[in-house]
Structure formats: structure tokens, C-alpha cells
User: Fold this.
Amino acid sequence: MSTMLQQAPALVAPPPARTPLARLRWAAADGWVMTKRNMAHVVRAPEEVVIYFTLPIMFVLVFGYVFGSGMALPGGGSYREFLLPGVFAMTMLYGLGATATGVAFDVGRGVVDRFRSMPMARSALVAGRSAADLIRAVLEMSTLVVCGLLVGWQWRNGIGDALAAVGLILLLRFAITWVGIYLGLVVPNPDTVGVIVFPAAFPLTALSNVFVAPELMPDWLGAVSEWNPLSSTVAASRELFGNPGFGGDSWAAQHSLLLAVGWPLVLLAIFVPLSIRRYQKLSR
Amino acid sequence: MTTNDAAIAAEGLRKRYGPRYALDGLDLTVERGVVHGLLGPNGAGKTTAVRILSTLLRFDAGSARVAGYDVVGEADEVRRRIGLTGQYAAVDETLSGRQNLVMFGRLYHLGARQAKRRADELLEQFDLAHAADRSGRTYSGGMRRRLDLAASLILAPEVLFLDEPTTGLDPRSRNDVWDAVRSLVAGGTTVLLTTQYLEEADQLAGRISVIDTGRVVAEGTADELKARIGGDRIEVVVRDAAQLGPAAAVVARIGTAEPELDADTRRVSAPVADRMAALTEAVRELQLAGVVAEDIGLRRPTLDEAFLHLTGHRAEPDVVKETAA
Assistant:
């Protein structure tokens, strides 16, 4: 192999971008390369995706059919129709694990060192991760919607409202991605991250309106549940889909639409700067 | 050569982790087009130095220019001109070899077609074409290291950092890497090679900086470093360990410096001025003293001994074993 090395034509990289516009274009191009990288991971490890889909589908079946027969709704209505928006949001929450593990895996391996020694945009690694996870979330949502339609769930307020509800759910996923990126940077060990995420995510779903209407919980628990960011997205999407079980007397329940936009923005405002600071800290 | 022409010019680099200095005033000048060895034991600061010079790590004091550009103020210019291959293969192991090289090419801002063509060339050159579309996970350690090296060479870098490139490789793969390094340098690339393998530095590097506890303790060619502890040495192995004392007395009379004793191998050695005179004298004197020698010989000092001499301690134990062969 060595004899051929000298024949390699000398390639020269384009000079660094000088203007803000050129920098932005490169940041977008580099971010897209990293997005494709993460998508290629999904293609190369489809079994991970299968496992990842099994959980929400299992929840639909177990809660919808086994426990669901004994579940009551405050205002009446089909429990499975109540359940599906909750499962949508819950699946987005569990995406936290995939994001954090992916980031931790990168940081633990030497590949991030190579990225950082190259003339690529600093933002590309995290931007690519968050874009790829969003694309993945769209695929997951499509699958879940089909799954929901099969078990009798439907949207009742027209396609516009339904898409708005999906938009809110993806906004939550986007915010959660950045929580995951931060987690992955703070705990740079994929195994540890996997162990942390489930115990953190499970109580968050249990203490929400995903499976049980907060009105049916003890007062204090109901209040915690209604203020849960996950609940806001679920309540707002139930309202937009026209599914039963939204509403309630508390301020949080009355303003779920506002909170479903507000909570993710708050999370982003906290975790985007934290993640970027942490990423830059890798050079210390 | 002024420092501006140098491929690498570092002055007074300091990097502190808590109370400990990983680098404690490191000065390093590497001229263009050579392999420069950075030799030192684990924890000497080799990797810290490479990470600073390749813009991965900030430092507390000093300054460094690589390929003529400041590693802090002109990091992007530096990054366009360097390649980095570390101790662990820095590739995406989920992706295939080809996907890796195309991705890195794109991140160097090559066009899509150019990146693909370059990936194909490198796969061919590094004998990876047959595994181009397999996931990196299925690669052997040697293949992964070759892919890593290929990724460092997408742009034919002006300065290539090789941080212990052969650690953990089998002898065949190690020779492959050595060959690749030699032909790169023939093509004009400057290589900074860190290693704890004395043999590797001896084989590849024109100049060697010996570093210990974060600073350069000696610098020169391999021969110069060896010369620092004198020229030829006479070495006597006695049959009976009890005769080490008398043998040492004889060697001391012949040698130009205090003899070194190694009780485990029953070995006495000392530097000598005149090779053949020393040898015949040793044979006669040992016989007179009634010492039964198992082996008497002359040899050049190893880089290992130079290292011991310069730093006051041996290189890593496994390294000594490595180079003993």
C-alpha cells in the first residue's frame, strides 16, 4: 500500500469562511452531513429502532386493552382515544435515551476528537444530532398514528388541528433532544446514560396525564401531574385532536396550549446554552 | 531555520490539571518534512502536547504555531493543514469505511464527487477496498487503524500528528503503519510521532525529543542520544552470581565509567574507549581473577539505556520487553 501513497493528488481544502453568511452556509452544510451520519446509524442498526418502537406499541396494547377496560374518564369517552395522544408524547420522551446515548457514545469514542480537529462548524455535531432525531421522531409519529388508527383512535377536528397537535408533540421532542444532548455530554458513558434515563423518564410519565386523568388523582398529585411539561403537550394535543379527557379546573389545565408551547421553549432556553457550553468545555 | 518556517514551533507550553502540571514549559521545534519523535513514558505529557498542537485542548501558558499558524488565534487555518491519528481509532464504527471517508471529506468541504473519489483512492491505498462497504465494527484492529490513518490523509496534511499509532497492533500491522509514515514523509509531510516504543522512535524519527514530567529533557538524533551515554559498551555475563563482584572490579578497570550491575541477569557492563583492546583485556583479566564468564561481548547502547540515563527511570516495563528482542 505504501508505494501508492506518494501518487495521491494533493487536495486543498477551501479556505475558511470569512463572512457571516459563508459561515452560516458552512454550518448548515456541516450540520446536514452530521444529520445524514446519524440517519445512516439508524439504517445500519435497524434492530435498535424495532426495540424502540416496541415499547409504545406495547403500552397501547396493554393499557388500551388490558387495563383500559377498567379505566374511567372524567367526562366519559373512549379510553383508547384518550390514551393515544399520551403515548405519542411518551414516545417522544423516551427518545431522550436514544439522543443521550448517541451523544455519550460519540464523546466516549475518539471520533469527536477527529471532528474537533477538522475545519468544520463547531455547531455541526449537536445540530446534526438534533436534526436527525427530529427526522426520526417524524417517522415514529407516522408509525404511531397508523398504529392508533388501527386501534380505533382518530382526530375529530380536521387535519389542520391534527397537524398542529403533531407539531406540538414534535416541539416537545425537539426540546427533549437538547436535554438528551446535555445529558450525553455530562455523563460521557453510554452504559451509564442508558441506566439513568429510564428511571428518570418513567416517573415523569406516571406522574402525568398520559395514562390517568389528573382529576382522578389525589389533589396534590393531580396538581403535580397537571404542571408536568409532558401533561401540557398531551392535554393540548387531546384538545386539538378532539380526543376526550382534556380540561380541568387548574390554571395549568386551562392553559395547556400555552404551556405546550411554553414548556419546550423554557427547556430549550436552558439546555441549548448549557449543551453548547459543555461541548466547548471538552477542550479543557 | 526561523521559528516561522518550522512545521511546529511551541514555546513554554504549560497545561495544569488541578495541582499537577501535565506540561511544564514544553519547548518544541520541528522542521518541515521530517519525522520528529516525541518519546516518553506514560504520563510524560505526550498526548497533552499533541492535543494542544492539534487545537483540541486549551493551555494555560506559552504559545504554539503549527504549519505557520497560531493554534489558538488561527485554529481554523491550522485545522485545514493537519491530520490526527490517536491511540484510539477516531472513526465512526457504525458506518462503513467508505461512508466514513466520504463524511470526513465533506466535512473538509470537498465537493460530493471529489469526496467520493478521494475515499475510493484511500480505500485502495490502504488495502481496505474489499471491506469498503462493511461496518467499521467488523474491522480488525489493524484495519481500523488504517482507516483512521486514511481519514487523516484526506487532504494530504502539511503536519500529521501520530499519537502512539501502533499501540496494540500486531507486528505486521505495525510495519504497515511504519511504511505508510515513511512514504508520507517522502512526499513532504511533517510527522510528529509520539511513542513509548523506543524501537519505533529509533526506526522512524530523524530527531527525537525525550519528554518527561511535561518538559523536554533531551533532544537529538537517535545516535546523538545514544552517544550521550558513551559509545561502545563491554558486557560480561558471569556463570555464578557470587562472582559478580570480582567481575565488576575487572570491568571497572577496563571501562571509562562506573560499571552497571544487573544481579538478575548476572550482567556487568561499562562503556569503553577502545573496542578490541578492551575485549582482549577483559578475557585475560577475568581468567586471571578466576571468574567464569558465560558471555563477553561488545555492543552499542540501546535507546532504552539512553532513556534510562536521561530520565533517571526506565520506560514502561512492557516496552523494555518489546525492545529486548
